[in-house]
Amino acid sequence: MSKTVMIVDDSTSMRQTVKICLSSAGYDVVEAEDGQDGIAKLDGRPVHLIIADVNMPVMGGIDMVKAIKQMPNYRFTPIMMLTTESDETRKREGQFAGAKAWVVKPFKPEQLLAAVAKLIMP
């Protein structure tokens, strides 16, 4: 069975880029355009990894991570931040909220896939 990854980013082109990268590696992809949309799409279906931007309208990535960690079905789902933010303070804030990885844009597809493979348990 293939693994499902949710991409949460307010940039359509960024979601498409990540989706192509993941789909070509055999992952199923669910897209959401902001944190609130991402949470709404966590409707009980299995999601093996969430990749989220930090800066988004409506609800940003770090607030979304905090909210997801309160959801019994998704509390242990690994979350990777994919963002232009490289500030250590933001990274610590993300880690404290529960993010397991921090990848800075622009990213190399191999780098992203290696991180995804590490975070998704077989």
TrEMBL record:
GO BP, sorted A to Z: phosphorelay signal transduction system
Keywords: Phosphoprotein
Taxonomic superkingdom: Bacteria
Pfam family, one: Response_reg
Domain Response regulatory: 4-120
Protein name as annotated: Two-component system, chemotaxis family, response regulator CheY
Signal peptide: none
